[in-house]
Design brief:
It is built from four helices and 20 strands. It is α+β, with helices and mostly antiparallel strands. A hairpin with a 7-residue loop joins β17 and β18.
Length: 335
C-alpha cells in the first residue's frame, strides 16, 4: 500500500511538472497588449512602453508610447510632459464600444476623443509632469469594438424542440449563418443529432444542448469534430465567465491557442433560432477538459494533502495495531 501511495504522489508531481513546463506561445495581435518596463534611474523614474490592446474589427495606429514616471501604491506620476495619441479604424460592421474601451479613465480632463471625417476615432491624452493617473490606466489601455451581428445557428427537428431530453439523441438539421465576423471555415448546412446536456443548468429556463454531426466539420474555425456543446448563458449575464476562465487557464499554463483543444474561437457566441437566446459554442469533450484544467490549481494540492493525510493516519493505526499485538504477546508470555 505504501508503494501505491508513493506511486500516486509521483504521478501527481509529474503531472504538475508537465503542466507548468508547457511551452509559452505568442499571443494573437488582438490579444497583445500591456506594458513593458525598463530599468529605473537614480531618481526612481521608470520608463514604461505602453502596448494598447484592441479587439477584432479594430486597427490601431500609434507612434512610440513610452511614458516616464514614478509608481507608488498603484498610482503613476508622470516625470515629463508628453502626449499619447491613438487612431482607431473600424472594419465594416464594427463600431466603437465606449463601455469596454479603456483610455485613461482616471483623468478624463486630460483626454480627448474625436470622430474624424473618415469615421476613424482619434484618442489623445496629455500627460503632464507632476500629475498622476491610476497605474491600471497604462496596462489596461485598449480600444474595443461592438459587432453588428453575431453568428446564428438554426436547429430544426421534426418534433417540438422543447420536448428534447438528455437521454436520447434526436435527428436534426443544422444551418450556421455567419454574422459580421468572418471565419475561414465558412457557413454550414447539414444534418445530425441533438440532445440536452448539463446538470443544474438543465433545470434553468435557457437549457444547454449537445449536437452530433454526421461527419467531422469545423464550425467557427473550431478544429473539425462531430461533437459540439451549445453552452447556455442563463446563469452568466455577463457572458464572460467561461471566456475569462479559459483565458486565465492560458495564462496559468502558458499554452498557445493553436495547441489548446478548443481552437482559436473558444466561446464565440451564436444565436439559436428556436428561442433567440445567446449561447456559446465549443467542442463537447474539450469544454470538460478546460474546466478540469481550470480546477487543477485547487485539485492538485487537495489530492496531495488527502494522500499525505491518509498515509499519516494509516501509519498511526498501524503503530497502534503493532503495540496492541505486542501487549497481547507480552500478556500471553506472562501467563
Amino acid at each position: 500500500m505504501n508503494k501505491l501511495c508513493r506511486r500516486a504522489l509521483c504521478a501527481i508531481t509529474a503531472l504538475l511538472f508537465v503542466l507548468c513546463s508547457l511551452p509559452a506561445g505568442a499571443r494573437t495581435e488582438t490579444e497583445a497588449g500591456g506594458i513593458t518596463s525598463y530599468a529605473e534611474d537614480s531618481n526612481g523614474v521608470v520608463e514604461y512602453e505602453i502596448k494598447p490592446r484592441h479587439s477584432d474589427g479594430v486597427t490601431l495606429e500609434y507612434s512610440e508610447t513610452v511614458l516616464r514616471g514614478n509608481l507608488h501604491s498603484g498610482v503613476f506620476t508622470f516625470a515629463e510632459t508628453k502626449t499619447v495619441t491613438l487612431v482607431a479604424r473600424f472594419a465594416e460592421g464594427w463600431s466603437y464600444n465606449d463601455k469596454y474601451s479603456v483610455f485613461f479613465p482616471s483623468n478624463p480632463a486630460r483626454r480627448t476623443i474625436l470622430l474624424n471625417s473618415d469615421a476613424s476615432i482619434r484618442f489623445s491624452f496629455s500627460a503632464i509632469a507632476g500629475e498622476s493617473v491610476a497605474f491600471s490606466d497604462l496596462y489596461l489601455l485598449g480600444i474595443y469594438a461592438a459587432v453588428e451581428s453575431l453568428p446564428r445557428l438554426d436547429i430544426t427537428t421534426l418534433n417540438d424542440f422543447s420536448l428534447i431530453g438528455k437521454d436520447n439523441w434526436v435527428s436534426a438539421n443544422f444551418s450556421l449563418t455567419l454574422g459580421t465576423k468572418k471565419y475561414s471555415s465558412g457557413e454550414f448546412s447539414g444534418s445530425g443529432y441533438v440532445k440536452g446536456r448539463g446538470n443544474l443548468s438543465w433545470t434553468q429556463p435557457q437549457k444547454p444542448y449537445s449536437i452530433k454531426l454526421e461527419q467531422k466539420t469545423s464550425l467557427l474555425d473550431i478544429p473539425a469534430t462531430k461533437r459540439y456543446a451549445i453552452v447556455a448563458s442563463y446563469s452568466d449575464p455577463s457572458l464572460m465567465r467561461n471566456l475569462v476562465t479559459y483565458k486565465a487557464g492560458l495564462d496559468l499554463y502558458e499554452v498557445t491557442r493553436e495547441s489548446s483543444t478548443t481552437g482559436k474561437t473558444f466561446g464565440d457566441r451564436v444565436y439559436t433560432r428556436w428561442n433567440d437566446n445567446l449561447y456559446r459554442m465549443g467542442q463537447g469533450f474539450q469544454n470538460f477538459l478546460i474546466g478540469f484544467l481550470g480546477g487543477l490549481p485547487i485539485l492538485v494540492p487537495v489530492v496531495i494533502v488527502c494522500v499525505a493525510a491518509f498515509m499519516v493516519v494509516r501509519r498511526i493505526l498501524r503503530k497502534r495495531k503493532d503495540r496492541k499485538k505486542g501487549k497481547q504477546k507480552s500478556d500471553s508470555e506472562k501467563m
